[in-house]
Amino acid sequence: MRGAAVRLGGADVLSGIDLRVAAGERVALIGPSGAGKTTLLKLLNGTVAATRGRVRALGCEYGRSSARRTRAARHRIGTVHQHFDLVPQLRVVHNVNAGRLGAWPLWKAALSLVRPFEARAAQAALERVGIGDKLRERTGDLSGGEQQRVAIARVLVQRPRVVLADEPIASLDPARAREVVDLLFAVSAEAGTALVASLHDLDVALGRFDRVVGLRAGRVVVDAPPREVGDAEVARLFRTGGSP
Rounded to two decimals, what is the model's pTM? Predict the structure, then answer.
């Protein structure tokens, strides 16, 4: 990502973003609310287009590569959304299998709604996240924590090269937060998968991740290993008023 900017509703949400994430790297995005963290994740998975600059992911340059190549790249990027993006009326197996839709032809995706394909893979993913008994449950009947695990299981079956997580531990108690971070790190450990997660918890960001990228007012103001992010850098990120 070089010189990337996003303008929405007449305002710059991101400006001049230069960012490179290596295979297997674990990057924490931090910054105050409204800093642009979610938009940056959307730039990385191609669901938001850059107004200026260039964004390249897994060999695909968004907006310049073919539609086929773009779809292939996006299928290799798994996203854990802040609000999960599950279909509550469907059984858990269908929501987990949504992680495979990019690899299936249309007929298989449609038929799987009647008789789920690859149910064993979905079951294995659910067992990894600790809810192996929920395969046939209606997703809307699960607790919030269980639905979050379904969202992570969906990423597991996708077998991504990059995992993006938008506030995956927001509103969780410390024990549950550690479990979720451990799950995401386990996914990242497979095949050198990169992990980029937006976080409000500074202790987790500074204590667990390889690198910290701090956003303020749509600009990167910190990009360093956690050991180099001290009180001055945190104060610069979260101070009230003023410009970046």
Answer: 0.89
